[in-house]
Amino acid sequence: MALLTDFGTQGIYVGVLKGVLSTLAPRANLIDISHDVPRGDVQAAAFMLWQASPYLPPNTIYLCVVDPGVGSARRGVAAKWDTQICVGPDNGFFSYLVSRDGTPEVIELWDPQVSSTFHGRDIFAPAAAQLASGTALNDLGPPVELEILLPVPRLESVSSEVVEGEVVHQDPFGNLITSIGILHPEGSQIRLAPWLGQEPESFLAAQDLAAGLPGGDELPLVRTFDDVAEGEGLAYIGSSGLLEIGVNRGSAAQTLDLKLGAQVQLLIKG
Amino acid sequence: MALLTDFGTQGIYVGVLKGVLSTLAPRANLIDISHDVPRGDVQAAAFMLWQASPYLPPNTIYLCVVDPGVGSARRGVAAKWDTQICVGPDNGFFSYLVSRDGTPEVIELWDPQVSSTFHGRDIFAPAAAQLASGTALNDLGPPVELEILLPVPRLESVSSEVVEGEVVHQDPFGNLITSIGILHPEGSQIRLAPWLGQEPESFLAAQDLAAGLPGGDELPLVRTFDDVAEGEGLAYIGSSGLLEIGVNRGSAAQTLDLKLGAQVQLLIKG
Amino acid sequence: MALLTDFGTQGIYVGVLKGVLSTLAPRANLIDISHDVPRGDVQAAAFMLWQASPYLPPNTIYLCVVDPGVGSARRGVAAKWDTQICVGPDNGFFSYLVSRDGTPEVIELWDPQVSSTFHGRDIFAPAAAQLASGTALNDLGPPVELEILLPVPRLESVSSEVVEGEVVHQDPFGNLITSIGILHPEGSQIRLAPWLGQEPESFLAAQDLAAGLPGGDELPLVRTFDDVAEGEGLAYIGSSGLLEIGVNRGSAAQTLDLKLGAQVQLLIKG
User: Fold this and answer.
1) Domain segments of chain A: what residues?
2) Contact assessment for residue A15 and residue B42, using Cβ atoms and an 8 Å cutoff
3) C-interface mutation test, from A6, A9, A30, A31, most C Cβ less than 10 A away
4) Nearest to A43 by CA among A196, A191, A245, A217
5) Pairing status of strand A209-212 against strand A218-220
6) Which string of DSSP letters, residue by residue, matches C202-234?
7) Chain C residues in contact with A32 (beta carbon < 8 A)
8) C155-268: CATH class
9) What are the pLDDT digits (tens) for B260-269?
10) HEC sequence for chain B
11) Residue ranges of chain C whose pLDDT lies below 50
């Protein structure tokens, strides 16, 4: 099982989740993806889940609690794909998995009405533990469809020289991850396999590439941070295969004037 | 086994505790409650232990290290109840468990005199690991009684309209937890079952309740944060059943002028 | 297995490492030493590894990722001693273990060329998991020698009254750890067994000791923090046996003007 929350580790909340999981599913192996999702930021949570999930063991059950609407009308759900099950609020958290992995089988979790403020402990963790112990999805509630899906971030090959996308995430080091990818270098070409199926696969020339920023500035696409001087900006293919904007031994988020949603271009000049 | 300390996670200290536990009790399942108890704050630690322990597996062994007097005369102890064992300093850490669960069987841990500054590693973790491996409590030291118990926070039904208590904890989000509870909504009534046995159970009318603050301000008792506007204060029954004071998408500790120990009233106006 | 990185816990990076380890070595027990090594600080990482490793179970495999040169020419290695295996970059990380435990058997890890920015996930974690699953060291790459070793911190008995060393580490509480030790109190004497073999063992008189600071100030060597008044400086034998400089309920790093590398003396005045 894997946990992804915005609870932080200062309080007892993560420990309580793990206590409930360990009580109900004593043999489960618990992996923390992070408990420091920016508080209430469902889009960041959805991105982090997309990013981490390929590296977790197959059939992992994800306990997902970033839930700014806890206690309101939003539903609790469990969503099952061939390769993973996610348990959490129906607030968009699973959007990018749906785009990548297809429509899951979803049930709405029975609400035992025990707590208005800590559904992670009272609803989601018990459901995740039951699934880990072999309970069938359909025994946890009636089938439904996900109600809330986040918009798919823009990725568009506007010409053979320009691919347009946007900043979709800021990592803890201040690197800015864009929606342009997945980029697979293959010899003299780069294969662009859109990460959320935005358009068909295509091939780009692999040399003399740059990232175009909103103000017209360009950053060279290089292999790694040390390919530019300290304090200089760079573009690179990040560890998830997406185009990223960074600053060598610095923070792109602080140095460059780029926010979430800012338009970024991949320029093929070769 | 569960760990609750003020070591933080920046240094190696938590890893060393877990190394000692894993060396001596390789099969033990380790759950972190928190390592971010405010440094040296035994009262906060006692509260967090009270709060988390109902959700950990039965028979959990708690390794408890918040120990501002390490190296001084305070004793190391292990305290055993039917449902849990706690290992740590005799400095008040276990006070609220004593109030809730009754007097434990206590032994004073032999002090091997190996270290003056890291009893967690040299005394408490080895003792906890031995207990996890089946060593009997009495084999770890001579029977004693706990010397230091924190005062029981005030909770008093002063009339059928007013219950008085105090702020006992600030959670990492800035919510202020009071000593008024445990409050169990039961239809048109709320059952007040004092969390540390301060007085007998009683019943309150469940409608038109408010929290009275020291300056005379009142906050409505609502179900959840979104029941008030963003930035507004509210009172609610927290996930432990205690009356809490919060601010929707904000921090009560920052917004309201309320400190630990401040008097709070539950006003029954219905 | 144990993990020591500078990834922090805000992002998904530690979770991804654990996902890879759990996928390839499902039975491995994972212990976090810390993920908050100051970013890119190989010397601090080497010190923390030296400090923690005696308390981890024998035959632990250490996944060590503090790697400011990731993607550059530095090699990835696995280094094997009788008691432990370390996997990580050949950048000095294992220096203090070499000084303490002798020359290890080292291989250079095959580089599958899959990622330029996340060798922890793509090279080091898979190698560590394979070793945990029984793969022989020599199956992971060709034998080499470690290329980069940090200088051994100074420790010199300049007279029977003065031992000279330097500040080698600042812990998260602001305590300053020096290179003077390991100090073993033995009755009326202290045995000095140099932690990195800087010189032969010797014996010091155990009474009337002090730490001499660069400006000429002296701090008494006492047993524990509470032996001096709040806010006062002290010297003490830390939990690793090294002479440390602290301030009771304060931060030596903030209060005293001492940086890494500053000369400190142990003065034997008895």
Assistant:
1) 2-144, 155-268
2) no
3) A31
4) A196
5) antiparallel
6) EEEE-SSEEEEPTTS-EEEB-SSGGGS-TT-EE
7) 9, 14-15, 18
8) mainly beta
9) 999 999 999 8
10) CEEEECCCCCCCHHHHHHHHHHHHCCCCCCEEEECCCCCCCHHHHHHHHHHHHHHCCCCEEEEEECCCCCCCCCCEEEEECCCEEEEEECCCCCHHHHHHHCCCEEEECCCCCCCCCCHHHHHHHHHHHHHHCCCCHHHCCCEECCCCCCCCCCEEECCCCEEEEEEEEECCCCCEEECCCCEEEECCEEEECCCCCCCCCEEEECCCEEEECCCCCEEEECCCHHHCCCCCEEEEECCCCCEEEEECCECHHHHCCCCCCCEEEEEECC
11) none
Residue B91 pLDDT > 80, yes or no?
yes
Nearest CA in chain A to B58: A23
Task: Provide the ipTM.
Answer: 0.94
Q: Using an 8 Å CB-CB cutoff, list chain A residues near C71.
A: 223-226
CA distance B264 to chain C (A): 32
**Partner residue facing B57 (CB), from A10, A12, A23:** A23
Tens place of pLDDT per residue across chain A (270 aa): 999 999 999 999 999 999 999 999 999 999 999 999 999 999 999 999 999 999 999 999 999 999 887 666 789 999 999 999 999 999 999 999 999 999 999 999 987 766 667 899 999 999 999 999 999 999 999 999 999 999 999 999 999 899 999 999 999 889 999 999 999 999 899 999 999 999 999 999 988 999 999 989 999 999 888 899 999 999 999 999 999 999 998 899 999 989 999 999 999 987
Instruction: Say which residue the tokens 């793969």 belong to.
Output: C135
C55 contacts B16? CB cut-off 8 A: yes
Q: Which residues of chain C does A236 touch, with a Cβ-Cβ cutoff of 8 Å? A: 116-117
How remote is the C-alpha of A206 from its chain's centroid?
27
Residues B200-209: pLDDT tens digits? Answer: 999 999 888 9
Q: How far is C230 from chain B (nearest CA, A)?
A: 12
Q: Which of B15, B68, B71 is closest, CB to CB, to C33?
A: B15
pLDDT tens-place string over residues C193-233: 999 999 999 999 988 899 999 989 999 999 888 899 999 99
Query: Does A123 sit behind a cis peptide bond, omega within 30 degrees of 0 on the bond before it?
Result: no
- Dihedral sign computed on CA atoms, order B108, B114, B118, B120: negative
Residue of A33, A172, A223 with shortest CB distance to C15: A33
- CATH for A2-144 is 3.40.50.10790
List the chains bordering chain B where 3 or more Cβ pairs fall under 8 Å. Answer: A, C
The CA distances from residue C266 to C95, C192, C213, C226, C228, in Å, are: 25, 11, 9, 21, 18
Kindly determine whether residue C224 and residue B118, on different chains, have CB atoms separated by under 8 Å.
no
Pick the residue from chain C with its C-alpha nearest to B69: C226
* Structure confidence at residue C74 (pLDDT): 82
Q: Which tokens go with B42? A: 């035994």
Q: Which residues pair with A89 in a beta bridge?
A: A76
C160 CB-near residues (< 8 Å, 6+ apart): C268
CA distances from B229 to A225, B209, B226, B248, C177 (A): 45, 18, 7, 7, 51
Q: Closest approach of chain A CAs to the CA of B184, in angstroms? A: 10
Contact residues of A toward C, CB < 8 A: 2, 4, 9, 29, 31-36, 48, 51-52, 55-58, 60, 171-173, 223-226, 236-239, 249
Find the residue in A nearest to C12 (Cα). Answer: A33
CA-to-CA separations, A215 to A212, A264, B141, B201, in angstroms, rounded: 8, 10, 71, 67
